[in-house]
Design brief:
407 residues; alpha+beta; FAD/NAD(P)-binding domain; 2 domains; seven-stranded mixed sheet; 24% strand
Length: 407
Amino acid sequence: MTLKENMQTWDVIIAGGGSAGLAAALTAARGGARTLLIERQSRLGGMGTNALVHTFCGMYHPDTSRPWAWLNPGVSQEVGEHMMERTRQTAPDLMGRVYVLRQHPSLFASIANDLSAAESKLTRLSGAEWCGLKLLNCGWQVELISAGIRQTHETKALIDTTGDATGARWLSRDLWLQADSARLYRPAYICGLPRVIGTHDESWRFALGALIVRGIREKALPESAIGAAFRDSPFAEEMFMTIDLEAGQAQWDPLDPAKRAEVEITGCHTAMRMWTYLRKQHSDFKNCPPPILPAQAGIRESARYIGDFTLTGKSLATCQRYEDDVALAGWPMEMRENARGPKLRFFDRPEPAGIPAGCLKNARTPGLLFAGRCISADHEALASVRVMGTCMATGQAAAIMALKSVS
């Protein structure tokens, strides 16, 4: 479908084209709803394409003592299978006590494009900034700015997958929350490193870590380089470097554009210093061209909705299930409150936990659903459900709920 007017009426509007938004849009359109997907970036995939997050986590059953199995059927599995086919992976990687699937951001963007283009009921609007929201008698009015033109769209159901609870912030302060700045999970700056040779096992990583520490001590690298980690791409002679950043600690606010800009500048500066240093000091990086930089830093935590039910770290740890489960969580709580690596809290048993419908809705805002990083969860639970596999599952679940409300 093409957008021919600046004001239209839709069955479902999805705000945010990340992993949750993609899953919601595909599910709604496949369910027969006239669907509009709005995205501020030029590419779908969110953190998995624009921030170069290069692993799909939360896609698999958490019991690693048995062969790997998909956790949530539907879009999450579909995207994972497409990625495995295009990268020629036959199985996910077993990393300690979790299964992860290496993904390539460019391929994820291509897969998202192909899947969305195949749906005749789905219209995609990129480069669109959400600038207003109003409750109507039988739905919602959404205001956008796209290419400098203000647009107004009406919808029976709205799904917020922005990652920042944008809709709640337009409506009322008592509909959303955010952790204290000092506790917010630290952002990451990720870049691609082509033409890196060698075998990158644990001893290699240990030696590289020692080299980076030496570089910091000798002032050849900035202090921010201490948060760097390296992982192989699905393709030969390519790596991704992830730099966790302190981001000012107690001054960090992902909703502040100036703070986000500071993170981008620090991340880019650190990445370029690292590239220069490693080319000189490590033979595996000698022929590495300049790094592929992300379109944005990776934000792990921001504002989220207060729903009818709030998922907690305790409920995940005890593998609690609910009568109205709409998705399953299987990724451990990966807490990153500083730039010194994750603090993992695994579930008490190698079983998934439930995500009930109340985490995706609030009775005070009928017809407004939320998924992905926006769902109603406490700080600890978010550390599990924020990963892309789980975000796809909650996006799909929100769309199924939306379809029931507009039918």
